[in-house]
Amino acid sequence: MAEAHQAVAFQFTVTPDGIDLQLCHEALRQVYLSGLHSWKKRFIRFKNGVMTGVYPGSPSGLLVVLVGYIVFESALQLISHLIAVFPCSKYVTEEGQRIVGGVLIGTGLWIAVTFVMRNVLKYLLSWHSWMFNRHGSLSLKTKLWLMLVKVFSGPKPMLYSFQNSIPRLPVPPIKDTVRRYLESVHPLMDDEQYKRMEGLAKDFEKNLGPKLQWYLKLKSWWASNYVSDWWEEYIYLRGRGPIMVNSNYYAMDFLYVIPTTRQAARAGNSIHAIMMYRRKLDRAQIKPLMVLNTIPMCSSQYERMFNTSRVPGVETDVLQHMNESKHIAVYHKGRFFKVWLFYDGRLLLPREIEQQIERILADKSEPHPGEELLAALTAGDRDPWAKARSQFFSQGKNKQSLDSVEKAAFFVTLDDTEQRYDPENSVQSLDSYGKSLLHGKCYDRWFDKSFNLIVFKNGTMGLNAEHSWADAPIVGHLWEHVLSSDPVRLGYTEDGHCKGNPHPNLPGPQRLQWDIPEEGQAVINSSLKVAKALADDVDMHIIPFNDFGKGLIKKCKTSPDGFIQIALQLAHFRDKGKFCLTYEASMTRLFREGRTETVRSCTTQTCDFVRAMMNDKATLKLLKVAAEKHQDLYRLAMTGKGIDRHLFCLYLVSKYLGEDSAFLKEVADDGYGVSYIILGEDLINFHISSKHSSPETDSHRFGSNIRQAMLDMLDLFQFDNKASNK
């Protein structure tokens, strides 16, 4: 084992002749290589910090300015005048004075140019009217603006290069937020309800609202983002209920590709690919996401992807992030293992990681008392976990083992079940697969880790991610890298192993040791009971919708997202006979440290279309009007003009001030949980969840309604085309 290997780097014995030192050169070599690796990472971080700090300028630009100025300054007498005022000028030669003066003035000029470029770029990026251009066409004004953004952006940006140039999220005017709020709730209320809400809104806009708004504006001038820190704390970290199911989310493997059926091999390639992604992340070599290949999105959420764990507290949790972690934590059949991913000063190769995983799979040792169900603490309520962590895991071997889990790069579960999409039994196989990734057995995932890699017995895999540190698109970027690297770049041998050879001297995984008393085991069992009740209540249904996809929708000159959102409204009305407040997440990463905003998809225009469909009077025009309205709301949300985050922050300020607002208390939430992923041109995967305990919902019934709604809406385009052809 690596720790034991380094622990015996030297031994000594006391003899009559004195102390006899016995050095283990191989272990000392590993210590040296480990230190060298750490110093390399520190240097890379320092270099990246410098490069990011001066962007859109660059050190090479500084060199050009200095050389140019020193060469051509002879025509100017400015340097000699400046040098003359320094007391040390008489001790420096004229040539030295010329060089020093050139360096000072050139550096000042370079700093000034960089400062101007950065602030002009920030000003340019504050203009968002380009979002409202018709899809597929750009106005002349937008084209000129894009050209200016390119001119004032530096060359070859790294992941965090644009962070100082991305504008801050603006606070919308109270009047605009109230107007948009009333517009969003109008289709959900009768005349009497709406009149009452309108009165509350107008009173808030005139009286309490401006006072609360003043505090928000003050925060927006002081903080990088007036929403994100409160959103993270109050929506995620202060929640006392289980994060499993309620907050954590999952990502699936390929449905139609099976790279290998060897569990250890799939884990080997995937873990290596994830660590290669981490290396790129540490070196800021991942390109920032750019809209239209020009407009940068904020990259701050990537910072806590690895080496991060959510640590429970009595009142609020905290995110613990380590700058460096050289191991992963692995769970298999009730046992926890610590696996070092570096040896000989380098990252282990895929076949070497597979070798480590094979050793774990071959280990026949039994779990320690309480160890098998331990992770259920992360699946239940937060307060019992916080108290148990303080009482039973704050010292001795329990603390050491818990540290190994919480400070790991990420968590890996070697699941002893088999999951896979089966075309012969598509509904049951996908539902089982989705539920396994979402909650598993409630004790075989460490839900507090930033993400869990789950590798099933038959080689299928997936992710389960904790939500507080970042949103799904960030994890999706990592997952795309893993899935593209696994079968294509890394590949497998003909017999399904990772390519390469096992390492002859590689120290094996370290089995973590636990000593959990009976009182601690009772808390674990109590958390497991809570988690199982929650998991058993999940009604999960996954639909691989392949009748058509975004390719055909775009041919109909309609936004795929708008089309699907309207289909969900139609399906919901058919399912429950009513409309409800609908939440669709939109990212706000055009702003610094931006996360999400809500798009309220149930609009008056959408309701008009749904009612027309129910009465067989729907027209293509009604559909396109509803879709365009949805797209406008999405654009407003992306450009900082949403409703819900502003209201959320106003509500928090009112609580800080001890003010009570009837308007801010009016909150509603109902319906199914639906996520969808548009894959290629012809496939859309719908993930539907609800609760078995609800008498009003049925995920499979709703799934059937979604499929029929999609097909019925497509018929509108086909009928329109037939009429045009006639």
Briefly characterize the structure:
The protein has 23 helices and 20 strands. The longest helix has 32 residues, at 94-125.
Describe the structure.
- This protein has 23 helices and 20 strands.
- Mean pLDDT is 88; it is low at 1-11 and 722-726.
- Strands 3-14-13-12-8-9-15 form a seven-stranded mixed beta sheet, with helices on both faces.
- The longest helix is centred in the N-terminal third of the chain and has 32 residues, at 94-125.
- The N and C termini lie far apart (78 Å).
- A hairpin with a 5-residue loop joins strand 13 (451-455) and strand 14 (461-465).
- It has 726 residues and is of the alpha+beta class.
Q: Could you tell me the mean pLDDT? A: 88
Into which percent range does the helicity of residues fall?
40-55%
Class by alpha and beta content: alpha+beta
Alpha-carbon distance between the termini?
Answer: 78 Å
Total helix count?
23
**CATH top level label of the largest domain:** Alpha Beta
> Can you tell me the CATH architecture of the largest domain?
2-Layer Sandwich
Largest beta sheet: strand ordering: 3-14-13-12-8-9-15
Taking pLDDT < 50 over at least 5 consecutive residues as the criterion, the unreliable ranges are: 1-11, 722-726
Q: How would the global form be characterised?
A: globular
Strand runs, count: 20
- CATH fold descriptor of the largest domain: Chloramphenicol Acetyltransferase
Count of structural domains: 4
By CATH, the superfamily of the largest domain comes out as Choline/Carnitine o-acyltransferase, domain 2
Q: Beta fraction of the residues?
A: 5-15%
Largest sheet: 7 strands, mixed
What is Rg? 30 Å
